[in-house]
Amino acid sequence: MLTATPLLDILHEDDNLLVINKPAGLVCHPTREGELSSAIGRVRLYLGHAEGRLVNRLDRETSGVVVVARNGAVAGELGRLFGQGAIEKCYLAVVHGHIAADAFTIDAALGRDDGSPVAIKDRVRDDGAPARTTVRVLRRFLHDGLECSLVELTPRSGRKHQLRIHLAHAGHPIVGDKLYGADEQIYLRFTTRSLTDADRQTLVFEHHALHAWRLQFAWRSRTWRFEAPVPAYLGEFAPTE
Known about the structure:
Elements: E1 3-4, E2 9-13, E3 17-22, H1 39-47, E4 53-54, E5 63-69, H2 72-83, E6 87-96, E7 103-107, E8 110-112, E9 122-124, E10 132-143, E11 146-155, H3 162-169, H4 184-191, H5 197-203, E12 210-219, E13 222-227, H6 232-237
Parallel strand pairs: 5-12
Antiparallel strand pairs: 1-2, 2-3, 3-5, 4-5, 6-11, 6-12, 7-10, 8-9, 10-11, 12-13
């Protein structure tokens, strides 16, 4: 059950776990801008201590399910579980273009993009780490004349920026993606707070349209399944009619 507090949207809470619905635009790791500026900072304020540890992490602009261990023992157990890839994850995204196939798999190794001025940027490369993503098209639609598709994504590996890179590699970048979209210079201007009106028009809206929708795993003799409600911006961008 989703519980809203001034600090967090809580999907689940018990003695071991705190599961939150992270909003787009909030970083996971601590920043110099205070505890309210990061998910972990807000978690620790809510718990009243510094024992909470993020078990999984999302990019700043990706919204959705984040699991928090309330103590070190639980963090160790879940860290091993997540590290073994024994987690089922499902994302929603809005991408550019009407994807022709209803379902397909992207198998493309990932590694550093040495030709990019952006230090954190990766790309598809033959000598990279294996990565696989399955894609299912849920809907094709027009948004102010722009062809878009709403897709369900299941990562079969856990590489940095995997979904974003794979979709761009397939010719259907995520709408609003500043780094893997039309021009990586938009990302650089974003980091210096110098986005232009033309940049904003290219991006369509403020954050990239990627949402960590569902997460499921088996732990301590039961199956745990968490689902974060689809955010309004994503629902409005992908109308049902």
